[in-house]
Amino acid sequence: MRVNRKIGMMVAGAAVTAFTLSACSGNSNGGGGGGSEGGSSDSEVEVFTWWAAGSEKAGLDALVGVFDQQHPDTDFINGAVAGGAGSAAKDLLQSRLQANDPPDTFQAHAGAELLDYINAGQLQDVSSLYDEFDLREAFPADLVDLLTHEGKIYSIPSNIHRANMMWSNASVLEENGIDPEKTYNSLDEWFADMDTLQDAGVTPLSVATAWTQVHLLETILLSDLGSDAYTGLWDGTTDWEGADVTAALEDFEHAMSYTNSDRDGLDWPEATQLVIDGNAAFNVMGDWAIAAFEEQGKTLGTDFNAAPVPGTDGVFDFLADSFTLPVGAPHEAGAEAWLETISSAEGQTAFNAAKGSIPARTDADPADFSEYQQTAIESFAQDTIVSSLAHGAAAPVATLNAITDATSKFTSGASDLAAFQSELASAVGTD
Ligand code: GAL
Questions:
Q1: Which residues form the pocket of ligand 1, taking CB atoms under 6 Å from any ligand atom?
Q2: pTM metric for this prediction
Q3: Structural domain boundaries enclosing 285
């Protein structure tokens, strides 16, 4: 509970296009019932996520499998919009919400991102469902705090992911004289091995489009600044213009110099795939990546390894997906059925076993999860928890968007480091 209290404090401090529509259960529609009036029908539920393909869709499918058993009379309508981290989904969702055309339920991150929707009056209070489904004791109290505003609870968590993970290809490292199980205490040690790889003509580090570069940036800030000063970036106690941040941005620039040149045209699955296929040595990505390795028959400890991003051991860079009941949802009863499944022990076990995340429920049995997930469960219980920037926990969507724009400008060579730093400071509103 000590750890969970930390999550609450942290994020409270921070509170400051491909398009895929397909259907399971033999049903389909064009998405959205239209109109501002909510409906009570449970004939169907349109579930809006960005889990549209690959291992993420496999996770969603596992959840839908439980949903179909628990609610056989409610058709699941898949409103998934492709694009990792919601890079395309969130904009589309915003247009739909503003046009009073909400889906029946949508994915939203616990923390500052959820507060955006709450402040815009787009979400209904689901406290009564916590009573109906007996959820008040099921989740860590401080996670529920992140979903609560002025005494009302606005979403139900499905999972917890760790963002500060480094994935590596064992053969690539071995062939280049690097112990595949090596862990790194600092970025400098890691950069030294990446120099070796680069000299040998291997791509040391894979990355993809802008949001994955922000993901890398957040883990480098965390590594260099440490958890307290990283958290201070979001509650105003760390100076974005300070020399420590400059040094971290220099390390980010250095890390980017090891990456694949086609990065801007890729999304996270392709960047992780470069490591899976042995075309790059390392990738920094949240632990949804493990589902991609495992889906392709790769074995942890043999084919690939996972370790905290160098210099972040003992810190769990946290994010949680949760599901909402939007104002004006056309099929409220269908949405409630979905919320019941995603919060149930069966739903969370099936979903998280496939997704690579850990259950938000505290009563899940670790034995039902993989070796990696068991380490994540342990780490979540013991480590210092900090909030992810790229995944909605640390900062509002507008701040994240401004940071993403500044990062793209910098990594594409359109701004220098000093300009980058002052744009980041303006993005967070501390300059
Ligand atoms: C995160 C989300 C994860 C995973 C990831 C990559 O924002 O919370 O569940 O989907 O994006 O798309």
A1: 50-51, 56, 84-86, 109, 161, 268, 286, 288, 319, 321, 391
A2: 0.92
A3: 162-317+392-428
